[in-house]
Amino acid sequence: MTPVGGDAAPSAVTLLANPAAGGRRGGEIAARTARRLLARGVDVDVVAGRDAAETRRRARDCVAAGAGVLAVAGGDGMVHLALQEVAGTSTALAVLPTGSGNDFARVLGIPATPPDAAADVLLGGVRRRIDLGRCAPPEGGDRPLWFGTVLTSGFDSLVVERTERMRRPRGRMRYAAAVLAELGRLRPLPFTIEADGRVQELEAALVAIGNTSCYGGGMRVCPHADPADGRLAVTAVSPATAGQLLRAFPRIYRGTHTAHPLVHTFHAASVRVHTPDMRAYADGEPAGQLPLRAEAVPGAVEVLVPAAA
Question: Are residues 119 and 139 in the same domain?
Fold first, then answer.
């Protein structure tokens, strides 16, 4: 890891702000961080778009202009947007977590509180190269999609879709409420999974493909994921009753569900997953209809993390 603190602290930072993330708190954290960096002699260029498309265009322009550090103030959706532009470039990504889930920041050890903690990572953290996942339809054609956390399909997809329709509660409680709502509609799905050329067909309630371990506001669905090993971690949950899933649900937050006989885990550098009439989500954002092929891309992005991480 390359240090960026002290004399090596960045001389300039581009701050991509999303005031909608975390309500008013998102805008306040972005402004507070900008003032803190300026007080330490760091040049700050704050950019924001009126919608996701404009924000992504602005991020692309910043990277093309040679931004050394792109700091994202927002949640996993904003991180996902930024990853599409910084992946495979020399621009380092810093995260100021102000969203409801903040799973990418969580696995990097970047705290959401106190308010200045993430800004201090910018000033005194270290640079670290990590893997990203990249997914696309098997036949190609569409531009590949980068993801930093987890690609989900099956029951998880249905939960994410319901979560998007909900306004309350916030954070992990909203995800938990969506899980409970979808349990009554639970059904087994016929999945085909091709992992590093090996094909298996199985019935499953969900399949999660993780570059990192958690999603949904701290659910450690792929606790065996390591974003520095050049592989993706796969968790497949066999058909279960609503009661069985409900009892296992708390274990997912602890990452101890992998010992359950209904749970199958493995690693692969490349995974193709398919079940009919199902969408997939990456970092909680739409990734398209199955089938999709995902692969691990070693060292695809440089991130700023706490010095002790």
Answer: no
Using the CB atoms, write b or e for 195-227: b if 16+ within 10 Å: beeeeeeeebbbbbbbbbbbbbbbbbbbbbbbb
Token pair, residue 8, equals 């090596």
Cα gap 146→136, rounded to integer Å: 9
The neighbouring-strand residues paired with 74 are 97
Q: Of 64, 91, 124, which marks where a domain is finished?
A: 124
Q: Are 151 and 166 in contact (CB under 8 A)?
A: no
**Which residue carries 């640079």 as its tokens?**
127
Instruction: Based on the fold, state whether residues 217 and 149 are members of the same structural domain.
Output: yes
Which pTM does this prediction carry? 0.89
**Angstrom distances, CA of residue 202 to CA of 5, 39, 193:** 49, 57, 8
What whole-number distance in Å separates Cα of residue 96 and Cα of residue 26? 9
In this structure, what DSSP letter does residue 215 have? Answer: B
DSSP-based three-state secondary structure for 148: coil
pLDDT by residue (tens digit) across 90-104? 999 999 998 878 999
